[in-house]
């Protein structure tokens, strides 16, 4: 978790945790539903296939 998390107030801490999970963690972690690739890897592969098909 980032070291600059605002833990003084619950709403700020909740927002910081949400931003970390959605903005960093979920983009990097591997997902079983997309062949154990990160969402970024999956999108790059899909985009490359779309470009080849065009």
Keywords:
single chain, 54 residues
Q: Mind explaining what this structure looks like?
A:
The chain is mainly α and 54 residues long. It has one domain. The protein contains 2 helices and no strands. It has helices spanning 10-28, 39-53. The termini are far apart.
Quick recap of the structure?
This protein is mostly helical and 54 residues long. The chain has helices spanning 10-28, 39-53.
Tell me the span between the first and last alpha carbons: 41 Å
Mean pLDDT value: 81
> What class, by secondary structure content?
mainly alpha
Oligomer: single chain
Largest sheet: none
For the CA atoms, what is the radius of gyration? 16 Å
List the helices and strands and how they pair.
Elements: H1 10-28, H2 39-53
